[in-house]
Amino acid sequence: xxxxxxxxxxxxxxxxxxxxxxxxxxxxxxxxxxxxxxxxxxxxxxxxxxxxxxxxxxxxxxxxxxxxxxxxxxxxxxxxxxxxxxxxxxxxxxxxxxxxxxxxxxxxxxxxxxxxxxxxxxxxxxxxxxxxxxxxxxxxxxxxxxxxxxxxxxxxxxxxxxxxxxxxxxxxxxxxxxxxxxxxxxxxxxxxxxxxxxxxxxxxxxxxxxxxxxxxxxxxxxxxxxxxxx
Amino acid sequence: xxxxxxxxxxxxxxxxxxxxxxxxxxxxxxxxxxxxxxxxxxxxxxxxxxxxxxxxxxxxxxxxxxxxxxxxxxxxxxxxxxxxxxxxxxxxxxxxxxxxxxxxxxxxxxxxxxxxxxxxxxxxxxxxxxxxxxxxxxxxxxxxxxxxxxxxxxxxxxxxxxxxxxxxxxxxxxxxxxxxxxxxxxxxxxxxxxxxxxxxxxxxxxxxxxxxxxxxxxxxxxxxxxxxxx
Amino acid sequence: xxxxxxxxxxxxxxxxxxxxxxxxxxxxxxxxxxxxxxxxxxxxxxxxxxxxxxxxxxxxxxxxxxxxxxxxxxxxxxxxxxxxxxxxxxxxxxxxxxxxxxxxxxxxxxxxxxxxxxxxxxxxxxxxxxxxxxxxxxxxxxxxxxxxxxxxxxxxxxxxxxxxxxxxxxxxxxxxxxxxxxxxxxxxxxxxxxxxxxxxxxxxxxxxxxxxxxxxxxxxxxxxxxxxxx
Amino acid sequence: xxxxxxxxxxxxxxxxxxxxxxxxxxxxxxxxxxxxxxxxxxxxxxxxxxxxxxxxxxxxxxxxxxxxxxxxxxxxxxxxxxxxxxxxxxxxxxxxxxxxxxxxxxxxxxxxxxxxxxxxxxxxxxxxxxxxxxxxxxxxxxxxxxxxxxxxxxxxxxxxxxxxxxxxxxxxxxxxxxxxxxxxxxxxxxxxxxxxxxxxxxxxxxxxxxxxxxxxxxxxxxxxxxxxxx
Amino acid sequence: xxxxxxxxxxxxxxxxxxxxxxxxxxxxxxxxxxxxxxxxxxxxxxxxxxxxxxxxxxxxxxxxxxxxxxxxxxxxxxxxxxxxxxxxxxxxxxxxxxxxxxxxxxxxxxxxxxxxxxxxxxxxxxxxxxxxxxxxxxxxxxxxxxxxxxxxxxxxxxxxxxxxxxxxxxxxxxxxxxxxxxxxxxxxxxxxxxxxxxxxxxxxxxxxxxxxxxxxxxxxxxxxxxxxxx
Amino acid sequence: xxxxxxxxxxxxxxxxxxxxxxxxxxxxxxxxxxxxxxxxxxxxxxxxxxxxxxxxxxxxxxxxxxxxxxxxxxxxxxxxxxxxxxxxxxxxxxxxxxxxxxxxxxxxxxxxxxxxxxxxxxxxxxxxxxxxxxxxxxxxxxxxxxxxxxxxxxxxxxxxxxxxxxxxxxxxxxxxxxxxxxxxxxxxxxxxxxxxxxxxxxxxxxxxxxxxxxxxxxxxxxxxxxxxxx
Amino acid sequence: xxxxxxxxxxxxxxxxxxxxxxxxxxxxxxxxxxxxxxxxxxxxxxxxxxxxxxxxxxxxxxxxxxxxxxxxxxxxxxxxxxxxxxxxxxxxxxxxxxxxxxxxxxxxxxxxxxxxxxxxxxxxxxxxxxxxxxxxxxxxxxxxxxxxxxxxxxxxxxxxxxxxxxxxxxxxxxxxxxxxxxxxxxxxxxxxxxxxxxxxxxxxxxxxxxxxxxxxxxxxxxxxxxxxxx
Amino acid sequence: xxxxxxxxxxxxxxxxxxxxxxxxxxxxxxxxxxxxxxxxxxxxxxxxxxxxxxxxxxxxxxxxxxxxxxxxxxxxxxxxxxxxxxxxxxxxxxxxxxxxxxxxxxxxxxxxxxxxxxxxxxxxxxxxxxxxxxxxxxxxxxxxxxxxxxxxxxxxxxxxxxxxxxxxxxxxxxxxxxxxxxxxxxxxxxxxxxxxxxxxxxxxxxxxxxxxxxxxxxxxxxxxxxxxxx
Lengths: 230, 230, 230, 230, 230, 230, 230, 230
Hints:
By secondary structure, chain A is of the alpha/beta class. The first copy, chain A, has helices spanning 12-16, 29-41, 53-62, 98-111, 127-131, 133-137, 152-157, 180-187, 202-215, 218-223; strands at 22-23, 46-49, 66-69, 74-77, 87-92, 114-118, 141-146, 164-168, 194-196.
């Protein structure tokens, strides 16, 4: 091979505030393991997504502080100190959406946010959503994970004042077309206050939620001091 | 021309219980006018959809009992006697969905059903839906017309016991792709009890709603007498 | 895990008239089994769709009144008392459509309707349809299951006065695009009186058929008494 | 301009048995007129499709034997001698399909076939098809023009022994997606014996029908004499 | 099960001139075997497509005159007597298109046509096509099987006077989208005289080719006697 | 008409923190005017999007504090007091993206945020982006508006620590497919920290940007006091 | 407006070897005119594409050396000195492809290449291509412009040793889907040596052809001297 | 089988300058092996793509000069003498794109070009690209391989004067739709100087890069002698 297969972006943390994550689905076991090892040698906390069980076993064996969530495939070694002021609510339409919803949840926690999950509150039985609405409203950012028609994001956005990150999930069959129907439904939600990440991109949703959440503490104090007393 | 341009299906009423409708969008003014005239000569009540204003003027001039709704483009001459026992509720997500929703409403009334419209109760402000839910629940059949993400149909289906006919509308822009997002959203609604008609097919939704509604009176008496006392 | 993975909608029956079903395809064996068990503890009749053989064996072992149909993957424990006055006809274009057609059939029966299936009567040999048309016409609701071009729904709708629920099936290859051609063909059927459920959604078709069928008895008597004498 | 804008394929007739046609939609009035004039100078019979009215007026003024059909936009100057043994049946689902169906009809006649049109016999009222089936069965080739779900082609193919050329038409709205639903429905017709031309390609359907029809006379005599006595 | 899973169309031969074929891909081994057995009991020659190897072994074991082509998956028991006057040329763009091209070839032969295959003559090396053009021109009908861009059909149609049946094949990767690019390319071929069957539908192409070929003998003599002397 | 055509959501402000906006594209001039008038009677500040020039003239004539931006079609009457602590940067790839980018800019300002626009800094000349990167980095939220390949959002997200709202624009031709390529490119941006709104939904982007920006002041103080000292 | 609407990339020429072009379709007349004027003030040669007639008149009036080609909408003021060693052949399938093909031709000439056009040599009459093949083979780079099935690019690539830039054109109707079928056909051309630009992007094809052509002179001498003797 | 399954295009080298390659994915092991053997018997250097490991083992066993790259699946036996003057740079966005990028790299080298790879320099961390930009600028042709949003090609094209061949890769999930998002993004890149090959077509990209690169030496000397002194 003509060179190395990966060029780790070591100063990403200083540039964007978050270390680089390792997406395992497109890599061999050996490639993923090698990248994680090198990151640990540089003392970088590791967040690996879509990690196969076998990789998790190897890494957990080598690093005692590694943690693996088999539902979402999230594998972490270390994590960032809590650094964000508010709460992230991850709302999940159905049982089948859990793996992706948990990817968002655990990503946000890894990066330093407090985050909670509200499972199985889809709009087909909308009273389930109302029964936990008070708790959801306490969050600074909401991640709404749903497959099929993806209506959850728009319904929530009409009920809260926090930004909603819509996370379409590729569950379902037929006209759900691998998450396309949920994606389109979320993009065209009538309620404003919604933006959408890629289908099944729990990592991206959790990352963005943390970015927003983090600012509620750090930025106002320094950047806009005059208005802080409001 | 080698023959006639239209072969009117005169015994349709006896076969399916409803006379044939005239879809004006794909016909010239003259073709539509000629078909309507021949139907009236045969004493068939006329329902014309997507009727241009000019056609409506000509027909209303000729037939005093003609009625034209300029919002939906529905033009009728005569109508069937009321022949269905229950009520049809046409629920409409936003102002922009009104032309298509009214096409459904007026079709159902033409065919002999009682029908009412509930405008501007989309899920972006879901309290508007709850405020008229009691009335909607009185209906035997519900037509849910919505564009954009089309979530209205699934949310209603989770709240009522009547069948819901989902009517996707081609309003909106961008990823609504001419009604495609609403169509997909309605097809993949998580709540059961929903079936979908073609985008903008208000006529089809009203027709089917009437077919269902009509049976609540006529069929039970003859076809399943033993269970009538339930 | 942060909470429970499923929040059973126990009062669904009182709200919509039907208990919640369990869609097994997106769940692990353990999740499905646990949900079914909890429903049985609450004395809720269970309808599970897309049930794997292994799940069926476990459930049938535990509950003597469980029944499993290996063609459709429908697994039931108990069922609702017959509560609808008319008949549902499930018409099926070809042998390959049977699994989905039977999902509709068994769902309708579980919910309390009488239902019959008419297999292999696709439009490529249209005399087969005509030979059972008299029987089909006896139904209050017709479910038309077909893959490929999906023409069956439209042809039937032109021949009967009952509502037709079109059920596109993902059989076929090439330009059938996983049921898309059948779906589009059914949505654009020229004959009115057709509405479409999601591709392969036999459950949804059977559920909606029952909802319509059920009203032919119950609703007219209470809700629209004045017109009952017609 | 660096050269000529069109390079007329003068020996096409000797190579493929048919002269080149002029597709006017993508050309300016002047380009079309100039091509037609040069073809006439070479004594080539002209078939122009999608001809604008203004072009037709200019050409009809110049050539007394020019004929223009305003419904289909077919403009001819001269035609080929009748050279095919059988009949072509152009079957047309609805009034809106007529322009394209006539394009097929007039193309086939221009090239030397006998051809007849059967308008408004779509499958929504299938008795209309049966009432002219005997006449359709007399044809050597059948062109089936339909929009929306395009079921006509498959239904006919199950009823006749002649080849069926399916001609999808871009009429309709919503999920007909500019003829796509008809195209897919025709491609996936369950009955064998169907092949499909491009959406709205009446010219191509008529041309191919003639090619097939022509062979029923010419080829057998010369090319396969031994089997002629069958 | 409520009835039989298949309703064999026994008089199809008298109606359309060809017996019904058995499409094995959507059926279980047992279903296919049972249908074939019943057809043989009725002395109907059998053409089964997409037959699995195991089915072929069982059938070949039972019926000595059964033949199986493992490349295309075509399994036949008996065949029709030769009944068509001309030759069918099956032209095949590349090695990967062979399974589907042979499905067309063997179908046509089963039905009673003489047919020959011209493999690996795609347009990327167009001299290969020209080197066998003389032989291709002898055919009454041409089937052009190609994947990727599907240009073969249009190029041939510009060089011959016989009708061309375009058969798109789902080989390739990326933007060939499972045969979609070939399908679209064939539908929009600039040369007239082309019609297209479904992606990978070798059976349909061979069937239609035979239908056309058969008429070159039978029909002219009986059906249009007066014009035979031309 | 059976009722009113619009049901203004008057307490939306208290529920979500922002008043309802008026989307004029799907409404008649009269409908828009009437809604605006009624909102003003209720003293609700008005933000109307896609306002036609004629509507703007009428409204500006009636309300002296109305403002109209002809590039974006944003029409406002009144605005909310500045209520957010940070800055929103609207970054715009090319001149053609300006109308939509300004819709986002003016929406954010209307709702009470400080916002600035950075026009014509697309990635085709990436030095233009770097020349204003310092200023962009000062923002709490970034809106990245781009058509064609939509690469701007991902490139920016890799360079900043603030959340990026990607706003695909329907400029371009051919394979940009009305903004679809930009939409897909933004959804699949390799850099995390991006979420996407609907094509051309400048309003939604500005609204969401404000929602995020607003929290940097209000929420931390009240809602999560314990963590404020971090 | 918050700033300027365009930020001209003045040192683009030094960076990429070519000045920036002005795409007029997405700009108002005034915006285009202003950009052109400022470029001329900086003595930058101007290439404007999709220029409206009215813009051309204004610019030609102001700058005597402006040239306008009404077929392609290319407007130039000045041009670069001839700076490339070889010839570019622009091959064009049909008359309807000319506007886009000429956009490529004139762009290449503006940038300093010699370029010639070969119109109306589509594969439907492939002898037309062979009759000018000798001349096409003299070119260093070939641009192949075609709509419909786009087969021209692949056929040429199999016949020449020069690189082929495929330029899909949005002519045609039905399944050409605005150039999509040509685009897919070109991307999947079986012959290697083809790369594709956006639909209707004559400018991009001409630009890239020039970039390749230019290197045949400049680069070898300076950059890779050692290998020049081969 | 009626003939041979492959017709090797032996004089391809003289016609296009490159021998034919063997695409193994659509062929059986035996077919690939047989073709390779026959090519070696004719002393033709062999480039096989998508070669399975087992095929590679057989071929490497038989021919000592065979080489196999397991990452890309490229298998070569012999290669062409170096015959091109400049360098090809293969730039690769991420680790997951390596297999396809190496297919391009090894194809170009096989054909006689010098080529280097620059892995993992995607735009999400754009400083990685800038750190090797000087080396990339030394190339005569650049291949830019990327999945997901495919922005790499456009960003590079804005920074260099050499032609860029964009190579979309089917890595990713969700809205990357098997490489479609990268393909569309590359086709609509705002920077000119980009053309695109099929998704995952590393072979085609390497082949075309070599064709361009080769001309920088050979053609100028013979074809355009007068300008050689520049």
